[in-house]
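Regression check, NAP case 247:
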Amino acid sequence: MTPRRVLVLGGTAEARALADALAAEPGVVVTTSLAGRTRDPRLPAGEVRTGGFGGVEGLAAALAGVDLLVDATHPFAARMTEHAAAAAARTGTPLVVLRRPGWVEGPGDDWRRVPTTGAAAATVVGCGRVFLAIGRQGVAEFLAADAWFLVRAIEPPDALPPRSTLVLARGPFALDEERDLLRRHRVDVMVAKDSGGATEAKLVAARELGLPVVLVDRPPLPDRVRVRDDVAGVLAVVREQPSARPG
Ligand SMILES: NC(=O)c1ccc[n+]([C@@H]2O[C@H](COP(=O)([O-])OP(=O)(O)OC[C@H]3O[C@@H](n4cnc5c(N)ncnc54)[C@H](OP(=O)(O)O)[C@@H]3O)[C@@H](O)[C@H]2O)c1
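Current build output:
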């Protein structure tokens, strides 16, 4: 039987879980692609390649011999997701997007949804002490916002707001750690991205402490892409997917 070759665009916990599952799947050869942003990333089972493809053109070339492309990138990695849809359409490669559901506000939550990180920056002006829990990339949008910031990221941002403290840490974080961090820094408001998945402890801590959360909405998905919201859903697609090459 000709193996089915699956290329997983990764960088998330569920991409890693998917690759681990696919590596154990008979007749499947899985390669995970990482952007290479994180030093010392947690690696999945199967083959791993690292670094950008060089735009749609480069990704289309990399799809030669690939039977199924899985976009399991983070919901905010919008550029890679656009490129995946464009390269799949151009080469006729089947594509499935693995996208965990977004978060839903519950009793006790005080969330203000905004469409972009820039809108979040405008919202927190004059809000006092702001916990920026959005990773390193969006921090640039807050450089001119008049507030004090607690910035948490895995790696240092290129620049920090003039009044800020940087905490370098990699999640997941426990509830008591989050509660302690918010109290210690006397945080007034939190900014987070609607990454989705299991409700993160920082949101629970904000709810407990009665803190408002400015939640940045996800960028929209490209039109007409097939989406599954968990690893099992993508595995079902892989199992239905024949090899495009003769056996
Ligand atoms: N954005 C977030 O909040 C976030 C959070 C957690 C994890 N991540 C992960 O971090 C990576 C980078 O995120 P981003 O927001 O910078 O992406 P992005 O803005 O959508 O992509 C920018 C460029 O990075 C390259 N790239 C992104 N993901 C790649 C992958 N899996 N394999 C190879 N190249 C990739 C592509 O370069 P070329 O055009 O040269 O191909 C892409 O055009 C993604 O893999 C994502 O899953 C992102």
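Comparison notes: The domain at 4-101+220-240 is CATH 3.40.50.720 (Rossmann fold). Residues 9-12, 33-35, 37, 52-55, 58-59, 73-74, 76-80, 83, 135, 137 surround NAP (CB under 6 Å). No diff flagged against the previous build.
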